[in-house]
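Consider this one:
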Amino acid sequence: MPATLTTEVCAVMPSPADPTTGGQPQKVMYGYIRMEEPDEIEIALLRKQMAVVANAHGCRLGAVFIDRRVPADAVARIGFTALVDVLTFPDTLGVVVPTLDDLSTQSGLRKVLTARITSTASRLFVLSGNGVSA
């Protein structure tokens, strides 16, 4: 059976006013996951880890964009394109990914995708077994 491209995008809601910042909106981090062989249990666990990272940086986790059945060398990605679109929102701090391989296992393509994220003035956070790197 041929691979299918599926993307899941949660609704993006405006940031609620944060009483600890004098009513200013709370910063938001967005998640991105790319899986060639989707595992819904793993995706649920990654969402929880991403929320913990966002909270640790004084943010809330906004939408988590998921590209399912997308190979590492694919350039056209619906979920990633939607992610980059929301990174222009003024309350955005950054993006959290499980590993850099979620962007791509190919170094050239990974650099291009990373540059698309950082060109929006967003920071890139990577979950790892030893914590989070930024």
